[in-house]
Amino acid sequence: MDKNRYDFENGYKVFKDTRKPFHRWVAEKKYGKEYISDKEIHHIDQDKLNNDDSNLIALLKKDHYNLTQHNNKVNFFLDVIIILGAFYFMSVWIFKEMVSGAVLRIMVILMTIFAIELRSGFFTKMIKRPKEQ
Fold it and tell me: What does the pLDDT read at residue 133?
């Protein structure tokens, strides 16, 4: 593929001349332009750059929203539980005693912030992604 024909917006590959998302173009070839006109294209593996037609499905907007919100909530809470548990047990191992309630509350806050960053990349999105050469 000619890399000079593509750019990136919000993590998606787009055509430089039309700004059309590449994954929508691939989905048009797979499903037909009329079929996807009122639908959103979902990346099954959640990798915005994997535009293989087998990785793309067309969903109604409400179904796509429900799917992504459910996945994000489940993954977020799993991350918080895993990270909090790991840090709690590390602190017990390091300090050889149970941590106080105040320290635990601070750890919960910090681990929640860490889980948000891990799941959404909120803070790293502030840094502009370099364009592909």
Answer: 44
